[in-house]
Amino acid sequence: MADMRLAEERMASSDKDVAEKAVRRWTALDEDFHREGGYSAESEAGSIALSLGLAAKVLDQPLETLSGGQRRRVELARILFQGSSTLLLDEPTNHLDADSIAWLKEFLAAYKGGLIVISHDAALLNKCANKIFYLDANRSTVDIYNLGWSAYLQQREIDERRRKREQASAEKQAGALKAQADRMRYKATKARAAQSMDKRAARILDSIVEGGGREKVARIRFPDPVKCGKTPLMAHGLSKSYGSSEIFTDVDLAIDRGSRVVILGLNGAGKTTLLRLLSGIEPGDTGEVELGHGARLGYYAQEHETLDVTRTVLENMQSASPDLAESQVRSLLGSFLFIGDDVFKPAGVLSGGEKTRLALACLVVSGANVLLLDEPTNNLDPASRAEILEALSRYEGAVVLVTHDDGAVEALNPERVLLLPDGVEDLWRPDYLDLIALA
To answer: In what order do the strands lie in the sheet with 416-419?
Structure first.
């Protein structure tokens, strides 16, 4: 485009030769641009954005005014639009509604380039994957399966059963050798043979490839809430705008002790923004947030901005729990799978799933009686997700939840729903569950 603009400028030259040369140059560039799809690029980009749930008006807004979910969609749209020979996608369905997920699956299934995808969305993998790299943490190895997702699951189960049989057989053989060695070692004429048998048994045991076993899972629980008054959190007349973009106006909310509330709204309706206002991280344009007697808030941010990325895992936890001894903090971190030197990693180098576990660990020691949870199941493997849903169902304090995960809502068993951007409050009804995936 820059070359075409330069040619256009030279076409206006008073020098006839320069102008004619510029015309020929512009014509050649225009043909190349047209052949490469340049004139349809804006339309194609708009179509991808719309399919990912980004309305046309959103595309004209500065990025800093968009919600976390909208920014993720913009980034995904940018990557898909580039049409690279290989796409590297890390949890691409996070923050997408049901329609956008369905579109993305079809788009990736038809994509002519290569895909390298990390995802906990089994339906996406079943649709798009034809080769699986399984990182086995128990065996510290990578298994490669030239299979689709469903066939891979079946073959992996067969392989794990085979490894367990081989392990049992090897252990039995090594045990027999050691028993024979024990019977022989006290006879002077057979001591050397016994030693040889011991070595053979040790080599057999060393060669054993451990069976699949049970994968490590974070033991997630929410804190026992400290005592508080009848209504620990209230908001009156909250409004928020970013520039000329009005997010919501005049929102009232009262969170009673032990109540369970879901915030619903389309992407960009201000769900995350409202939690930030309630937590005190960000001020509203109007209105006020009032804490009741004994209120203690625990805020889980989907972008993990409550973590200090310059500090280590251990230092983040110590800041959240200054009254605990280091041994207690490290023990708690161990239950969230931060073991050994893992606790000395800077939070900034952690994966999305690790940051999720660290942020949840910080909540555990908070003693909060009101939890403000923004997409708490994002980036979690299925086993860890099940743990957090169980913890959510057992928690006795109040919860204000923002999520695209209908399983999280079912675990919460909410009493009320707040609909944004209008700020309308209603008693929870089962038909609201149908809106969760669309939110």
So the answer is: 297-300, 370-374, 398-402, 260-264, 416-419, 424-427
